[in-house]
Task: inverse folding
């Protein structure tokens, strides 16, 4: 079997949404290595294999649920086993279409913001024999497949229900336990994230962040690390690289221009940083997005 290297431009259509239910591959190995601009949820009904991201690997078996973020390279490999097909359901969507649906649900909206920013504690869950998520996927497939004027309503209700299920049963935000202390810390984190989102492309200055939030630099650094598992600087680097992926995929801007846009970098330093984070150069990332895929024996 050839080895596939794929970074695909995900065409979600005019609705910026795609779903498939119990997609089946039989009598052949499955190997895909790609990234795309949408959020992807992969639920495995049948099959045994392995999934890999840039920094982790996970077993694939019945009941596995995997979450892949925009532009996150991931490989899914399921060897062929006679009489045992690889059966999975997929949901892919542009995160921007979800945000209006979450306006009435501030807690869920905060959790989804954490998800988008890559700050959930995990992206793998073994749901075992639970039928809650498979049932949700099945019901939506049956309703959405029927023609009618209510598709947008069905899609919005499904996405809210899906995210609610993920928040409470698969990828909980363990940092919010409901106590006043925890809520106060989470409020600080939210303010830090908002500050970073507005300024990540500028040179980072911890003292400026400290002054803006009226909290000590030590406390901010300790709180951020405790809450996210990442240092502030590492998170800002990841955010810059994510934006660079978007620009490489959706614009013709030069590498030098992108390096300047995402952090005021020189092109050489940016290329080294991008390769360290993504395992390939910016040029290779862009080329594979534009050319589709290359297969090597």
Result:
């Amino acid at each position: 079997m050839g080895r596939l290297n794929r970074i695909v431009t995900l065409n979600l259509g005019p609705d910026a949404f795609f779903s498939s239910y119990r997609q089946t591959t039989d009598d052949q190995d499955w190997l895909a290595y790609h990234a795309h601009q949408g959020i992807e949820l992969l639920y495995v009904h049948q099959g045994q294999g392995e999934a890999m991201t840039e920094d982790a690997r996970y077993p694939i078996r019945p009941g596995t649920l995997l979450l892949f973020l925009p532009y996150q390279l991931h490989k899914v490999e399921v060897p062929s086993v006679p009489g045992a097909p690889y059966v999975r359901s997929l949901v892919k969507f542009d995160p921007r279409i979800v945000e209006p649906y979450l306006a009435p649900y501030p807690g869920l909206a905060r959790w989804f913001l954490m998800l988008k920013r890559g700050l959930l504690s995990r992206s793998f869950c073994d749901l075992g024999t639970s039928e809650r998520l498979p049932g949700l996927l099945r019901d939506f497939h049956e309703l959405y497949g029927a023609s009618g004027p209510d598709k947008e309503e069905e899609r919005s209700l499904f996405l809210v229900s899906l995210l609610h299920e993920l928040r409470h049963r698969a990828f909980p935000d363990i940092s919010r336990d409901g106590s006043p202390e925890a809520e106060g810390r989470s409020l600080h984190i939210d303010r830090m994230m908002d500050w970073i989102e507005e300024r990540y492309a500028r040179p980072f200055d911890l003292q400026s962040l400290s002054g803006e939030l009226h909290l000590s630099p030590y406390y901010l650094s300790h709180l951020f690390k405790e809450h996210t598992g990442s240092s502030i600087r590492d998170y800002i680097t990841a955010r810059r690289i994510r934006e660079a992926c978007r620009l490489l995929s959706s614009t013709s801007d030069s590498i030098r221009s992108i390096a300047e846009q995402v952090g005021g970098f020189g092109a050489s330093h940016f290329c080294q940083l991008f390769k360290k984070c993504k395992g390939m150069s910016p040029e290779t990332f862009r080329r594979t997005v534009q050319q589709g895929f290359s297969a090597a024996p």
Notes: The radius of gyration is 20 Å.
